[in-house]
Amino acid sequence: MNVLVVNAGSSTLKYQLMDSDTREVFAKGNCERIGQDRGIFGHAEFGGEKVVEDALFPDHASAIDRVLKCLATVDVKIEGIGHRIVQGGWYFDDSALVTEDVLAKILEVAPLAPLHNYGEAAIIEHCMAAYPELPNVAVFDTSFHMSMAPVAYTYPLPRAVREKYHIRKYGAHGTSHRYEWMVAKQLLGDDCHRLLSCHLGNGASLCAIEDGVCRDTTMGLTPLDGLMMGTRCGSIDPATVCYLQREGGYTYDEVDEMMNKRSGLLAVSQISSDARDIRAGADEGDENCLLAFDMYAYKAMQQASAMIASMAGVDTITFTAGIGENDWTIRRAFCHCFEWLGVRVDDVRNQHAVGRGPQVISAAGSSVTVMVIPTDEEYMIAKDVERLTA
Ligand code: ADP
Asked: Domain check: are 224 and 347 in the same one?
């Protein structure tokens, strides 16, 4: 099936037109700076060079309009559209064929992810109006985590507050964690039951998956929770927010911006949020960069321990996303923390795992199989469109 996969962020839109059977990508590209003065449109076809142009995208609808018009000139008939939706709230434990009701629910839960859901809903509305004959499928970052038990997802806040504001752990990166499970299971079969999935990119989360079911994950009500990330602080004492507002005079927006955009690796390294820059600094002995990496691995180890405990063991660990797939030193540091558990990484395999598809990097005799599995959220979305429109 020829599926257009749309992945919209707060000011960006990435797309791929792909065959959900062969995984061939016919066209792909991106719209940048949506809602800003000078936008950028990039488009590539059939593995060719990407053509980049100036553009103006006042809103998300104008961006998808440009994409659809551009794809109309590609000699591939679109048969369905899959949309990545950041927040499915309490409604969706699976992807859904979009109807008026589904769209209304995406908008109803939008206050939980205001920078994403409104734009994503606008894109769906535009697609439904412009191409009424095409099915649209919503694939939620949160739905995979809906299998968590109340003991894992409940926040110990007053019940009336929790219920009024729908406060609980929702998690994120569900499509990526689901992909990690699928591939690990395909490759390891009966040897894979308890998987710790480590999605380490700019945004980062861990997921405890037992026989395909999410038991727990590190992101919470929002994707700010859990691991220390590129620019996000991850889990800290929640009283820090009140303290900054009370003693520092910070406004809500200032704290929000600080914790999401100016914290994490960027704040500790004082150089960059990009792991490559921090690696270069650490190699030169920069103490802030060394601390940033040590903290990154330490916090990941601590939270991974909690994930492993939540499924009473682990037999498989997978690494994915920008840092997880590419930075063998982070993988080594992380796995060293679990030597007490019998985890052993083969240094040669680990260093050569980049860019070669799924790879086992654990050593013979390791108590846990450790793998690098490059994620493919677009493929999962395309497969869901195929499944829900069959
Ligand atoms: P996003 O959450 O934005 O999708 P990505 O999965 O693209 O993020 O990951 C971005 C992170 O991956 C950045 O910190 C970047 O430094 C890191 N990264 C990308 N390539 C490499 C590499 N070759 N070596 C180390 N880190 C890398």
From this structure: yes
Question: What is the mean pLDDT, run by run of 10 residues, along the chain of 390 residues?
Answer: 93 95 96 92 94 95 95 94 97 97 97 90 95 96 98 98 98 97 98 98 96 98 96 97 97 95 97 94 97 95 97 98 94 95 97 91 97 97 97
Q: How far apart are CA 274 and CA 266, in angstroms?
A: 8
Q: What is the pLDDT of residue 366?
A: 98
pTM equals 0.95
Expressed in angstroms and rounded, the spacing between residue 274 Cα and the centre of ligand 1 is 7
Backbone φ, ψ for residue 86 (5° rounding): -65, -40
Q: Per the domain annotation, does 180 fall within a domain?
A: no
- How far, in Å, is the centroid of ligand 1 from the Cα of 343? 25
**Which pLDDT belongs to residue 22?**
96
CA 299 to chain centre: 18
Domain hosting residue 37, numbered range: 2-140
112 and 238 together in one domain = no
Which of the listed residues 180, 202, 283 should we mutate to test ligand 1's pocket, taking the one with most ligand atoms within 8 A of CB?
202
- Residue of the nearest CA to atom 21 in ligand 1? 326
Query: By alpha-carbon position, which residue is closest to atom 22 of ligand 1?
Result: 326
CA distance 142 to 222: 10
Between CA 387 and CA 138 the distance in angstroms is 12
Q: Ligand 1 center to residue 330 CA distance, Å?
A: 12
| Domain shared by 119 and 210, yes or no | no
Give the whole-angstrom CA distance, residue 98 versus residue 96: 6
Give the chain's domain count: 2
Let me know if 141 is a catalytic residue: yes
Q: Which of 75, 141, 237, 286 is an active site residue?
A: 141
